[in-house]
Amino acid sequence: MKIKTVNNYYTDENTYIVYDENTKNGLVIDPGYKCDGILKAAQDDGVNIKYVLITHCHYDHISDMEHLREKTGAKLVSGDKASINITDPDINLSYSGLGYELSAKKSDIVLKDNEELNIDGLNIKCIYTPGHTNCGVCYLINNEKLFTGDTLFLRSVGRSDLPTGDGDILVKSIKTRIYTLDDDTEVFPGHGGQSSVGYEKKYNMYIKD
């Protein structure tokens, strides 16, 4: 498995390209801005984008989602609530963030909590982690790489004061769904640098025992 990061400087959002090095088939997680940059990064490695995964509904993580679907034919994958929330500009915050309404089509594939998706050498497990939004999920790939969206950051957590957010639920999600994973599980957040579950359990001041 190989992972490439495309940082969307406008909101400092991380888009991830994850693929199997043997088959070159892969996926994109949270395509914010710079669709052309995402495509170029994939093409540079000869990657075939088969799926687009989103961790939650906010505009900075889905802005170029429809463009990417159109250009690659990739199927959109999300949790159940995100499939609905991405269609609502009031909840995806596009009007306030972009200055226009972004209303996306519903997901092609809706994953339930703990449901898995397999792409060649990639096993993707969907873990429901509401709190930042009511539709937040994390994706655990091959039981070693965790893509957390805006649920968990390096020494921080996502804000919970936006529509459908809840701080208590966010803390519970992190404690019960993320901190229960192996300490050496690598964390790839939606913003900022990478981390690990063990590091966050030790140093993240926002999550106390």
Quaternary structure: single chain
CATH architecture: 4-Layer Sandwich
Helix content: 25-40%
The helix/strand series, from N terminus to C terminus, equals EEEHEHHEHHHEEEEEEEHEEH
CATH topology: Metallo-beta-lactamase, Chain A
Strand segment tally? 14
How large, in whole angstroms, is the Cα Rg? Answer: 16 Å
Could you describe the 3D structure shown?
Strands 1-2-3-4-5-6 form a 6-stranded mixed β-sheet. A hairpin with an 8-residue loop joins β8 and β9. The chain has one domain: Ribonuclease Z/Hydroxyacylglutathione hydrolase-like (Metallo-beta-lactamase, Chain A), CATH 3.60.15. Helix content is 27%, strand content 31%. The chain has 8 helices and 14 strands. By secondary structure, the chain is α/β, with parallel strands linked by helices. The mean pLDDT is 93.
Task: Indicate the topology.
Elements: E1 2-8, E2 13-19, E3 25-29, H1 35-44, E4 48-53, H2 59-62, H3 65-72, E5 75-79, H4 80-85, H5 89-92, H6 94-98, E6 109-111, E7 116-119, E8 122-128, E9 137-141, E10 145-149, E11 152-153, E12 156-157, H7 167-178, E13 186-189, E14 195-196, H8 197-203
Parallel strand pairs: 3-4, 4-5, 5-6, 10-13
Antiparallel strand pairs: 1-2, 2-3, 7-8, 8-9, 9-10, 11-12, 13-14
Give the tags.
14 strands, alpha/beta, six-stranded mixed beta sheet, single chain, 209 residues, globular, 8 helices, Metallo-beta-lactamase, Chain A
